[in-house]
Design goal:
- The protein is an alpha/beta fold.
- The chain has two domains: about 150 residues, Rossmann fold; about 130 residues, 3-Layer(aba) Sandwich (Rossmann fold), CATH 3.40.50.
- It has 13 helices and twelve strands.
- Strands 1, 2, 3, 4, 5, 6 and 7 form a seven-stranded parallel β-sheet that branches. A five-stranded parallel β-sheet has the order 9-8-10-11-12.
């Protein structure tokens, strides 16, 4: 059990979230999920795990429910962290924070997050300076975002630096959800969205390449894909974190902004995750699966069912 300590925003104390939770353990919590992909569910699971370890009483709502209802007066509003404060996302994370700040007398906690740049805080400037909430505790999950917060957030905001909450989890906790999985493939978990940074190398016909955030049908399926790997090469933040938690040799490379590098430097390097600098050596998933090159019709090559079959032939779990 974690002991409550004096809460001083400090770069030296790397896990103040557990102390903050413990200091408010006499109150009920409202956990708000601002949305995201399956990797964000690893964030939620980690915060839930910490809350249960500390014996917190809490309920969970998603963005839609939070936007149409109010927190109860006795509840601490905890907004799950992640990469929601960047130009590459839906913008629901800042909206959740804005609504929380407009709750009179509330204790608001923004979970460990990454800020894309100073522009991401500008829409919240008025809400931050004139908040109706009693307190705001703002957690960054790497140093560059913390530096942005130190420069841009008002002085009354209490600021902290903490690991991504997914890192409270153990490999056993994940495997309890999906069972023991045989490690049989070298996984290339590569983004296919707006945050992607593409390499120049064509895919190898024997490589198991997939974007787990898009391919997985459920959170457990997402975990199972990673647990099937003997090694992981990825620019998905939580694919790298999942690999680290499961003890799988993992190499990470950059996405479209500083997030991956910053989280790697703060949390993942010391956990054995390697960094790949040379982008030219990276495969380009946009070129398509070479296993399907023999199919003459483009529409058939792009068929979801055909691509799932190709993934299955490579050993990637389909469920």
């Amino acid at each position: 059990m974690y002991a409550a300590q004096a809460l001083q925003p400090s770069l030296d104390h790397q896990q103040p979230l557990q102390d903050l939770f413990a200091s408010f353990s006499h109150r009920k919590f409202l956990f708000v999920r601002p949305g995201g992909n399956w990797g964000d569910h690893l964030i939620y699971l980690g915060a839930d795990y910490l809350a249960k370890q500390l014996g917190l009483v809490y309920r969970t709502v998603d963005y839609g429910s939070f936007s149409t209802s109010s927190a109860r007066p006795e509840e601490v509003i905890y907004i799950h962290g992640g990469g929601g404060f960047s130009p590459y996302t839906s913008g629901d994370a800042p909206k959740c924070l804005r609504m929380a700040l407009q709750t009179p007398g509330a204790i608001v906690v923004q979970g460990p997050c990454t800020l894309g740049d100073v522009q991401c805080l500008l829409p919240l400037k008025n809400d931050l300076e004139n908040m109706q909430a009693e307190q705001l505790h703002f957690f960054s999950r790497e140093r560059l975002s913390r530096e942005i917060c130190q420069k841009e957030l008002p002085s009354h905001v209490r600021q902290y630096l903490n690991d991504d909450t997914a890192l409270y989890l153990s490999g056993d906790t994940l495997l309890e959800r999906v069972g023991r999985v045989r490690r049989r493939l070298n996984l290339l978990a590569i983004r296919e969205d707006v945050e992607a940074v593409r390499g120049n190398e064509p895919l190898n016909i024997w490589e198991a390449t997939v974007d787990p955030a898009r391919f997985a049908r459920s959170f457990n399926h997402w975990i199972r894909i990673h647990a099937s790997a003997k090694s992981i090469l990825t620019n998905r933040t939580h694919s790298a974190i999942c690999g680290a938690i499961l003890g799988i040799p993992t190499t990470m490379f950059s996405n479209a902004y500083h997030k991956n590098r910053s989280i790697w430097e703060f949390s993942l390097e010391k956990r054995g995750v390697k960094w790949l600098e040379a982008q030219a050596r990276l495969p380009n998933a946009a070129q398509g699966d070479p296993l399907l090159d023999w199919i003459p019709f483009k529409t058939l090559r792009q068929s979801w069912k055909v691509n799932r079959l190709a993934k299955r032939l490579r050993g990637i779990p389909l469920s």
